[in-house]
User: Fold this.
Amino acid sequence: MQKIAILKAALIILVLGISSCDNNFIWDLAESGEITAPQKEMIQMNSDEVTIIGSSTYDHPDNPSYGGVFPAGRTVTLSPFKIAKYETTYQLWKEVYDWAKSNGYTFQNAGFEGQDEPVNSGTAPGTGSASWTEAQRKTRPVTKINWRDAIVWCNAYSEKNGKQPVYYFGSVGSGNVLRDSRDTNEVNCDGAIMDTTKNGYRLPTEAEWEYAARGGGTTPSPNAWAGTDDSANLDAYAWYKDNSFSLGDNDYGAHPVGTKEPNSKGLYDMTGNAWEWCWDWYESSFTDAATVTDPKGPGASAGDSRLFRGGGFNYEAFKCAVAYRASLLPHESYGNTGFRVVAP
Assistant:
């Protein structure tokens, strides 16, 4: 009995240590070559359907025309979903990428460790002296991947973990799993069908992403940024232009995930660090009904670019605001753009 009590006490200490110092725990796992929680941890956003009543309080703090998915006059209902606690790290990306290439998958881009240049012997954030370790580089968000790479990787992540893939090509119900993100397969990628009846991993819709960034709940937070409404306090919650280059070129690129404060739901880096791909095609203003359920954006005929949200390490605070909307062509990839996954 005494041994059991000791083991229970040790487990409690371990859990408390993880919750209070997520980044060090992640780095230790990366050094050991293991990829377990918390890198793969998912946060339940809502256990039942939730309806968000649009309001001007959700407008961009600098300019309402920048958007957001909950404007006044729009009512959005979302089904239950989980979202990754962290942006997809390079280490997790690479593990799945390697498995996928051995199991019938092909990719246009291999991804980078949080930046679009070779890793140098730079300086870790906030220390002024310690070098980036290999573990810290691995736990930066994967970047330099395009939208097509992200959805194909999601299918691979699903299959590797015994789940049903979400993205298909051809007709609805064809069963043609999307496993090729190369430019030569652009027609199938850009015309991908998202089957949300499947239990696998996928990109969030724009509405899911913003709901999560705002902390969820029946009345999501109107804060300008994920976790704070005070620009003077933004350094505590985000890697963005004002603090990402404080150590010069050696501090270039996205930083290891989970090294800033989370939002009220416990999600890290929803503001800044790496931009995050969403599923939706971009439209400058919403053309669907005033009351919508699980909106997935317009069809491909509405435009030629896909949405990404959250801002990045090299962008100003106003572009990192929760309501700020931006887009890229689905074949474009940059060293400041990654993603995180959702699941039912």
In short: DSSP finds eight helices and twelve strands in the chain.
